[in-house]
Here is the input.
Amino acid sequence: MILADDQQLVRSAFAMLISATPGMAVVGEAGTGRAVVELARRTPADVVVMDIRMPDLDGIEATRLIAADEQLAGLRVLVLTTYDTDDHVLSALRAGASGFLVKDTRPADLLTAIRTVAAGEALLSPGPTARLIARTLAATPETPPPPPAALDRLTDRERQVLTLVGRGLNNAEIAGRLGLSPLTAKTHVSRVMGKLAARDRAQLVIAAYESGLITPGPGAGPT
Here is the structure.
């Protein structure tokens, strides 16, 4: 994986932890956003652990460039932030990040998060994610929702699935809620991602809120 943070001490601490973990390796480090994009383009990796606030090019724009590069389609970005109330996290998720963690997370949780993202899953904590989206949409009501035509392509069942993904349910929980097999639930999620051109579940969560399928508020989390 690649570590991107403007603080050498932070990168060194993460590198020691990751390098000491079987099955994991750090293949490169970068201290600026532009440097991490260039590094990603020339160094094969599964995950970028990305700080949001970096010089030259911030982590949000670096994430956007990585997500938009077809040659980096298999590379996932895990965003690190100082606080889970950082409104910039929502921008990073919109840009294509697969999830976020706060920097003071426990080492074991960081390693689990890296494995989760490397496996192609999104890493979202429904509570903090819902609060971020609710606060951001309330502060910027002029933010336009996704084009209605995108949601019009979804069947009624797919809209139900998108809503449950937005509420933080995994495939097994979606299957139980809708009376489906886990494989059928997974197929529905994949079809929704394809129709909405979503990189992963993180973007489906954003779409569920911004499209109005879920109204931000006290009941926005899992039910």
In short: The longest helix spans residues 126-139. The chain has eleven helices and five strands.
